[in-house]
Amino acid sequence: MSTTKYIFFTGGVVSSVGKGVTAGAVGRILKERGFKVAVQKLDPYINVDPGTMSPYQHGEVFVLDDGAETDLDLGHYERFIDVRLNRVCNVTTGQVYAEVISKERRGDYLGGTIQVIPHITNEIKRRIASVSKTTGAEIVLVEVGGTVGDIESLPFLESLRQIRSDLGRENTLYAHVTWLPYIGATDELKTKPTQHSVQELRSIGISPDMIVARSDYPIDDSLRDKIALFCDVEKQAVFPMVTTPILYEVPLLLEQAGAGDYILRRLGLEARQKPDWSGWRKLVDEVRRPKPALKIALVGKYVELHDAYMSVREALKHAAVHQGVEVEIEWIHSSELEKGRGWELIQQSHGIIVPGGFGSRGIEGKIQAARYAREKKVPYLGLCLGMQLMVVEFTRAVLKNEEANSTEFDHATPVPVIDLMPEQRDIADMGATMRLGLYPCELQPGTKAAAAYGVPRVEERHRHRFEFNNTYRQTLEEYGMVFSGLSPDRRLVEIAEIRDHPFMVGTQFHPEFLSRPNQPHPLFNAFIAAAIQNAGLDITSPDLVPASSAVES
Ligand code: GLN
Predict the structure, then answer these.
(1) Does residue 89 carry a catalytic annotation?
(2) Does the beta carbon of 465 sit less than 6 angstroms from any atom of ligand 1?
(3) What torsion do the CA atoms of 442, 445, 448, 453 make, to the nearest 10 degrees?
(4) 198 has which bridge partners?
(5) Each residue of 294-316: b (16+ CB within 10 Å) or e?
(6) N or C terminus: fewer CB in 10 A for the chain?
(7) Does the pLDDT value for residue 547 go beyond 70?
(8) Residue among 278, 312, 285 at smallest CA distance from 298
(9) Is residue 15 over pLDDT 90?
(10) Is the peptide bond between 118 and the residue preceding it cis, with omega within 30 degrees of 0?
(11) Among residues 384, 393, 408, 467, which one is catalytic?
(12) Is the shortest distance between the CB of 466 and ligand 1 below 6 Å?
């Protein structure tokens, strides 16, 4: 296939209709037909990346292999399609303007007046084109953040409009994802907002080729007809997407509605293989089947917003479904624990997870949760900050010095067991300056981490400034802490665990970013297995075959 094919996803009516999930699901559908697929998100905000944004504003920051700090939709894409994306797959308005302005300062525009069209749109198109160049993808899916009608997204939409003129109809497809509101009084779903949104898109010069109509209620045939008529698309190009509590059911629903065959036909492509959904369907059936509950306490700082821990939640679910249990997450605010509240939830939980985080609010509550896990022998998984605080807790206990701390929270601590990495000391900028992305980790034989992974060396994604202070390595080892994962030069502690404990493991990296629905992460698997044992559940794991990986990505 010589020319790259593009599918553009825009959103209508309201935000949060599941555009990211739809793009990921369509990606899976195409991969199942033997195509190499990549997905790019265009984010209209002016921040250069979400790395400096509060999780309350933005949800989780998803980290890629190359260290790009990206939108959480990239997590959906990677999980649905089972691909590894790169930094060009998330573009923000901030990046585009920064690039154009720096070129202007260098004099690259030779005295020209710099304008949105063509300078900004050309830079956007250059970035869209670089996806297939850097990933080798044959079909590139591009999702535009926000909703049609937003001022901020106009340059992106104009660029998408131009791409059709540049590449032709047979190489481009516009998918519009909208919402059908339900009016209770008359018991009906309304298509008017969708019609308006399509009109708005048209006024920009884009006519959608397909409409994904999301709704909380079933969408009947006459409604499909109506959308087709008023929005000027073929009826078979209207894909109803009724809300499902099972995220991973979306590809199956879209496939059932004929999205795969329609898209291929529109792009003039022939499937290279027949999609085999058997493994995926089995996974979805298993998610739906009522299973014994396993309670996991997630002790965090942004727990009101579950999206702030999206990948952790997904990784827990992946491991749980593969072991035949239903994970019930107890979202616990660590600062509540400090006030003596929420402990009954901790006591009822079969495992405790302390995820990543920044800043001092609620730190002591997380340390108390780690202490509880260690003393009561409750399975514990610490992710980045959760690992650092597990080390702080242990140091406080064994050195009998409650002043032990990370210098992130106490600059003057006499026992800085977690400290700034030397290469971080002179950094003044906050954006994209952490230790980011994939780094190798060697597992020490005979440890729980090594047993979980079953291989001697792994590569995991990082996002941190602070690290374990080697001054304390020997002492803590003598007291029963095991440094089970080290950087190949043995200088950096990547995984720590407690020897006399069923499962207390902390990782300096973020294993949650590499978990897949059909391939749960080994450490999450081991943690869930330990929690099942702690719960005294006697269950046999379902025999879930991995969903077919059609193309090596
Ligand atoms: N704040 C800690 C650090 O910068 C932990 C970061 C994290 O949890 N991602 O090292």
Answers:
(1) no
(2) yes
(3) 50
(4) none
(5) bbbbbbbbbbebbebbbbbbbbb
(6) N
(7) no
(8) 312
(9) no
(10) yes
(11) 384
(12) yes
For residue 356, how far is its CA from the centre of ligand 1 (angstroms)?
A: 6
Q: Tell me: the pLDDT tens digits for 305-315?
A: 888 999 999 99
Beta bridge partners of 165: none
Q: Which of 298, 358, 430, 436 to mutate to test the pocket of ligand 1 (most atoms within 8 A of CB)?
A: 358
Structure tokens at 73: 């939709």
Atom 1, ligand 1: residue with shortest CA distance: 358
Q: The whole model's pTM is what?
A: 0.94
Q: Which residue, chain included where needed, has tokens 């992460």?
A: 521
Q: Write out the E strands in 244-362.
A: 293-300, 326-333, 351-354
Told to judge if 462 belongs to the known catalytic residues of this protein, a careful annotator would answer: no
DSSP 519: B
CA of 69 to the centre of ligand 1 (A): 14
pLDDT value of position 553? 38
Range ranked top by mean pLDDT from 191-200, 376-385, 536-545? 376-385
DSSP class of residue 312 equals: H
SS3 content of the chain, % helix, strand, coil (to 5): 40, 20, 35
The token pair at 262 is: 């329609």
> Is the pLDDT reported for residue 141 higher than 90?
yes
Per-residue pLDDT tens over the stretch 347-376? 999 999 999 999 889 999 999 999 999 999
Whole-number Å distance between alpha carbons of 445 and 484: 8
Q: What domains are defined for the chain?
A: 5-283 (3.40.50.300), 290-535 (3.40.50.880)
Which residue's CA lies nearest to atom 3 of ligand 1? 464
Q: How far is the CA of 198 from the centre of ligand 1 (A)?
A: 43
Closest Cα to residue 442, out of 391, 479, 472, 483?
483
Distance CA 68, CA 89 (A): 9
pLDDT at 1: 58
What percentage of residues in the chain have a pLDDT greater than 90?
86
CA-CA distances (angstroms) from residue 93 to 50, 54, 67, 151? Answer: 12, 18, 19, 12
